[in-house]
Design goal:
binds magnesium ion, 6-stranded mixed β-sheet, 10 strands, MacB-like_ATP-bd, single chain, 4-stranded antiparallel β-sheet, AAA+_ATPase, binds adenosine-5'-triphosphate, Rossmann fold, alpha/beta
C-alpha cells in the first residue's frame, strides 16, 4: 500500500479552501491550504482560536467537504469519495479522538474500545483479546468494566485513544485531545499518542494549544487566519 512507503506522505493536502456563509459576512476558515504529513510521524497543528484547526482536521478526515482543493489519505482521495466511501475510510483508515472524549456512556470502557472491532465484524474471542491488549497499552487493564462516568477525564481520554487505535487505522486525527485535562494528565495523554506512533506505526495529526505538547511532535505546523505557515 502506498502509505507503507517509509518517509513518504500519508496525507497530502492541496489548495484547500473552506468558507462559511456568503457575501460580506462570509468567514474564510481555510484559504489555500497545502501540506503533507509524512507517514509514521506526529504532527502538531497549532494556532489561535478561530485560525481554522478544527475545520482543517474535519476536512482531512472526511467529516466536512472543502469548497476547493484535494485531500489524499493513504492513497485514497478523500475529497472524491461518496458517503459509502467516506464511511469505509473512517472504518478502515482514519480514527478520531475528540476533545470531549465521545465515549458511549452506557458501555463499559472495554465495550467502548470494542466498537470499531464490532463494526469490522471481528470474531468475539479475537475482539476480546485485542480490547484487552489495547486497554493494557493505555494503562487501563484494570478498568475495563468501568463506565465512562466512573473514570477520570484522563482515563476517559485514554479509553478514547484505545478505541481510536482498535481497528489499526493508518491515521489518527485528534482535535485538542487534552483540552479538558489538567497539564500533567494532558501530557501523559500526549506521551501516549507519541508512543503509539512508535509502537503501532500510525501517523498522528493533532491540534493543541499547549506549547509543552509541541515538544513531543516531530513537526509543528502553525495556522494563522486560515493559512498554514510555510
Ligand atoms: N459551521 C460553521 N459555520 C460558520 N462558521 C464556522 C463554522 N465552523 C467554523 N467556523 C468559523 O471558521 C473559523 C475557523 O474555525 P475553527 O473551528 O476551525 O477554528 P479553530 O482553530 O479550531 O479554533 P479553536 O482553537 O477555538 O478550536 C472561525 O472563524 C469559525 O467561527
Ligand atoms: Mg477547534
Amino acid at each position: 500500500m502506498s502509505g507503507d512507503l517509509a518517509g513518504g506522505p500519508l496525507v497530502t493536502v492541496r489548495g484547500v479552501h473552506r468558507s462559511f456563509g456568503s457575501g460580506p459576512t462570509a468567514v474564510h476558515a481555510l484559504r489555500d491550504v497545502s501540506f503533507d504529513v509524512t507517514a509514521g510521524t506526529m504532527v502538531a497543528l497549532v494556532g489561535r482560536s478561530g485560525s481554522g484547526k478544527t475545520t482543517l482536521l474535519n476536512i482531512v478526515g472526511g467529516l466536512d467537504h472543502p469548497d476547493a482543493g484535494t485531500v489524499v489519505v493513504d492513497g485514497a482521495e478523500v475529497t472524491g469519495l461518496d458517503d459509502d466511501g467516506l464511511s469505509q475510510l473512517r472504518r478502515a483508515k482514519v480514527a478520531y479522538v475528540f476533545q470531549t472524549f465521545g465515549l458511549i456512556p452506557v458501555m463499559t470502557a472495554a465495550e467502548n474500545v470494542g466498537v470499531p472491532l464490532r463494526l469490522a465484524r471481528m470474531p468475539t474471542a479475537e475482539r476480546e483479546r485485542r480490547v484487552e491488549l489495547l486497554l493494557e497499552l493505555v494503562g487501563l487493564a484494570d478498568h475495563g468494566e468501568q463506565r465512562p462516568a466512573e473514570l477520570s477525564g484522563g482515563q476517559q481520554q485514554r479509553v478514547a485513544i484505545a478505541r481510536a487505535l482498535a481497528a489499526s487505522p493508518r491515521l489518527v486525527i485528534a482535535d485538542e485531545p487534552t483540552g479538558q485535562l489538567d497539564a500533567e494528565t494532558g501530557l501523559s495523554v500526549m506521551a501516549l499518542l507519541r508512543g503509539v506512533v512508535e509502537s503501532e506505526g500510525v501517523t498522528v495529526l493533532v491540534s493543541t494549544h499547549d506549547p509543552v505538547m509541541m515538544a513531543l511532535a516531530d513537526r509543528v505546523m502553525r495556522m494563522h487566519d486560515g493559512q498554514v505557515d510555510p
